[in-house]
Task: inverse folding
């Protein structure tokens, strides 16, 4: 490819819209452009990187026995009604109507469509197992699209769905997918971890997320420093450290005035208490019923755990108006004592041992102090409801936990029979008995993987592409294209590299050398060959992008040098 004919609109300035480094660099390196919130054009250079990731994914998926197909992006509402998700998926599902007034949606994922396909064609256990995948555009109307391709609304995903007759067969495919994912992310040059992830109402450890470690990640991962345990903090179990008898209190129960003191910090400072002496009360709507969740003042409620304990599809923090209606007080003064009977109260294990604690009085500008379980309030239901912290022990070995940030690039999941039962996807087993097909699903964010690779591979000058992801392997820069001999020589080197099967960009633009060097460093091609004055003596400069080290070599030495560097 000739740079003069290519289209890489690089930017000198850092665009204001970008917060994280990969987003900034993808804009600056002319890889993507924003069309509207969460919608991006993949410019030629960005598309090439995307295609590299796709090619790696295809190879590894095919090798692991999966078969590629391509399903429609627009999906009929009927299928979503059958699975029950038309009502439960929420606002991320963009619903549209066709000219006949029929309901459709833009596919955020394809369980319904693939289950419909398979139920029509699979009859017997002899037709199973099968694992089908596609690489395709998805649409999710994300509440907060950001970070460029990391959290877009329209994005490319590889999604695979497996269908098995037995749980053992699902286990086998799941393991094969697990290994394929490790290969894919290793080949992409990523420093990643596989972690146990939330499985919603299905339960068990039947889900893993593949996390790229990065400060800018949106997920928290609890990693044990002693054993191999690693889990998304959405899931990571907090071991209830103390199941002792309830502590009898000594203080007298009092209602005190706390004018305008709403947050844990404000209330504890005002009352001269510590955060771990206070019970936080959070009001939710769970499938249209009010729920109060109690956690200690210094702990954080884990909404995923709360949802799982309640076994509900929809869980939403109550808005201030509803809180006032339910508790009789504005936000900030809710507490377990004196809540109306219809409110279901659930508490985290961490509040069980509290005595003489502080909590809202369900009255404007008032809190209780000296509250005690049993004496003053009935015991609520206790569950593991909070987010793990570095102070908690590893749930597997009791070792020390570290919280790290991660970018979720892949997710594998044992679905079981959730969709096959809802949609009647069955097969006949060896005894002629009809059974629901056992499913698994396996996703990778393609654009997010490119962004994550840049997040981990860059310096102050720009991108440092891991070789397998780089759109070109070599860039040949001509110092002065007006010097015909110099240009001729550079073209010869370029043609020669192409003949060797090496992907190459020839920077033949009529630009100052400084501009060319800056651009080549920004766009991050692993090797640069600079053709300048020394070419008269048959010499060129070779620079490796990662360490920016330059050496002068003879032009005859180029093929061998490049081959060994690309190995
Ligand atoms: P997240 O928690 O980040 O929203 P998810 O759990 O909704 O992800 P899945 O439904 O498992 O994601 O989708 C499979 C993969 O698709 C994810 O692992 C991620 O890499 C990618 N992905 C999901 N949502 C987006 C998005 N909005 N933009 C880019 N990639 C995405
Ligand atoms: Mg999501």
Result:
């Amino acid at each position: 490819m000739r740079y003069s004919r290519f289209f890489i609109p690089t930017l000198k300035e850092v665009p204001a819209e970008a917060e994280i480094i990969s987003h900034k660099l993808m804009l600056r390196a002319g890889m993507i452009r924003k069309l509207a919130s969460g919608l991006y054009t993949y410019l030629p250079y960005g598309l090439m990187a995307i295609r590299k990731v796709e090619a790696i994914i295809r190879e590894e998926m095919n090798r692991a026995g999966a078969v590629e197909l391509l399903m429609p992006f627009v999906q009929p509402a009927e299928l979503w009604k059958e699975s029950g998700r038309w009502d439960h998926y929420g606002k991320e599902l963009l619903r549209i109507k066709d000219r006949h007034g029929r309901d459709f949606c833009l596919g955020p994922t394809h369980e319904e469509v693939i289950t419909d396909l398979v139920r029509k064609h699979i009859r017997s256990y002899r037709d199973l197992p099968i694992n089908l995948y596609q690489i395709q555009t998805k649409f999710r109307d994300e509440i907060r699209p950001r970070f460029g391709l990391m959290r877009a609304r329209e994005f490319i995903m590889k999604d695979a769905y497996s269908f098995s007759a037995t749980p053992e067969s699902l286990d086998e495919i799941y393991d094969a997918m697990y290994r394929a994912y490790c290969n894919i992310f290793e080949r992409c040059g990523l420093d990643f971890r596989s972690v146990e992830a939330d499985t919603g109402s299905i339960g068990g450890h039947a889900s893993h997320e593949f996390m790229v470690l990065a400060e800018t990640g949106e997920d928290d991962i609890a990693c044990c420093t002693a054993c191999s345990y690693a889990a998304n903090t959405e899931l990571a179990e907090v071991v209830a450290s103390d199941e002792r008898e309830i502590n009898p209190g000594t203080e007298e129960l009092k209602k005190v005035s706390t004018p305008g003191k709403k947050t844990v910090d404000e209330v504890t400072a005002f009352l001269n208490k510590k955060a771990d002496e206070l019970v936080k009360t959070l009001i939710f709507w769970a499938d249209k019923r009010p729920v109060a969740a109690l956690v200690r003042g210094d702990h954080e409620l884990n909404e995923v755990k709360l949802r799982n304990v309640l076994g509900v599809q929809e869980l939403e923090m109550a808005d201030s108006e509803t809180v006032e209606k339910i508790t009789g007080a504005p936000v900030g003064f809710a507490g377990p004592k004196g809540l109306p009977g219809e409110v279901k109260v659930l508490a985290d294990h961490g509040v069980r041992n509290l005595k003489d604690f502080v909590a809202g009085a369900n009255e404007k500008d008032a809190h209780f102090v000296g509250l005690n379980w049993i004496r003053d309030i009935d015991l609520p239901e206790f569950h593991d409801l909070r987010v793990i912290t570095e102070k908690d022990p590893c749930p597997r070995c009791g070792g020390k936990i570290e919280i790290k940030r991660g970018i979720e690039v892949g997710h594998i999941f044992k679905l079981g029979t959730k969709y096959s039962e809802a949609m009647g996807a069955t097969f006949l087993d060896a005894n002629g008995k009809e059974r629901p097909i056992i499913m698994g699903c396996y996703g990778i964010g393609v654009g997010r993987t490119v962004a994550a690779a840049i997040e981990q591979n860059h310096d102050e000058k720009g991108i440092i592409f891991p070789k397998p992801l780089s759109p070109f392997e070599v860039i040949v820069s001509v110092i002065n294209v007006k010097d015909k001999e110099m240009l001729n020589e550079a073209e010869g080197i370029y043609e020669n590299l192409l003949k060797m099967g090496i992907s190459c960009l020839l920077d033949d633009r009529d630009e100052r050398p400084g501009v060319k060097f800056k651009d080549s460093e920004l766009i991050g091609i692993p090797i640069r060959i600079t053709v300048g004055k020394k070419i008269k003596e048959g010499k060129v400069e070779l620079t490796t992008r990662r360490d920016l080290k330059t050496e002068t070599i003879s032009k005859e030495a180029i093929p061998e040098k490049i081959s060994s560097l690309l190995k």
Q: What stands out?
A: The chain has a mean pLDDT of 95. The pocket of adenosine-5'-triphosphate (ligand 1) is lined by residues 109, 140, 142, 151-152, 155, 157, 408-411, 443, 445, 447-448 (CB under 6 Å). The two ends are 22 Å apart (CA to CA). The chain is about 25% helix and 30% strand.
